Amino acid sequence: MWHTRLGHPNSHVLKLVLTQCNLLPSNTYVTEFCLSCCVGKSRLPSSASQIVYSAPLDLIFIDLWGPSHITSFSGYIYYVAFIDAFSKYTWIYPLKSKAETLSVFQQFKAMAELQFNTKIKSVQPDWGGEYRAFTSFLAINGIEHRLICPHTHHQNGVVERKHRHIVEIGLTLHHASLPLQFWDFALTTAVYLINRLPSAALNFDVPFTILFSKSPDYKFLRTFGCACFPFLRPYASHKLHFRSQECFFWDTQTLTKVINVSLLLAEFTSRLSMADNSLWR
């Protein structure tokens, strides 16, 4: 069950989490064959960068993913990823168009600099038209703009590997049978979990721990896509109306957001029962 709660990590990462956090009576048993991993993961080997960064926000890698051939439930077809080179902590923002990239970066910059009490020193975006509007903004704010050559993805390998990791985990989560138009929920959950799992790029340290100087809490996690039953009595139209309906749980972070697939509605509630070992069907 922890294999699915944590977003289908590999066996080595899973053993580390279970051992360090004492989440199971026995830390030797990990998982059996996982169909979701088989359908969601397939990769070629790659080499990681050996450069070490000394502080948060020294360098932010930026890249755009998309367009998705399926428009999401919320109208998104892209996402932009911001990756802290020091901690490998990742933020993603779904986008409806490439034109939103600069304004979203401005939002991210304001949030990150306030939360971590430091300035973004430099950024390395993948080369593309969606980033050319950054030039004057970066110059005004004294941020170094590190350029890479067009069509040389290996020069932005951190982002390329991160995109692959996010989509792989998103696909394994999506195997829970949620309609594909909810892909943005799956990818957002994937990033939340990736930030809280040991990373080979950090010698199996955890991005969350490096950035926030504390360990993540795993005990509240529930399986993405498990069946859940929100308390709907206040919304009932009459006294014989059912007090709940099976929904799809997706918000690992706050445990308050569910999807009513039959009505294509995203609902928010603090009162719900979850069947953690039973996926929504």
UniProtKB/TrEMBL annotation:
One GO-annotated biological process of the protein: DNA integration
Pfam families membership: rve
Domain of life: Eukaryota
GO molecular function annotation: nucleic acid binding
Domain named Integrase catalytic: residues: 52-215
Matching SUPFAM superfamilies: Ribonuclease H-like
InterPro entries: Integrase_cat-core, Retrotran_Ty1/copia-like, RNaseH-like_sf, RNaseH_sf
Protein name: Retrovirus-related Pol polyprotein from transposon TNT 1-94
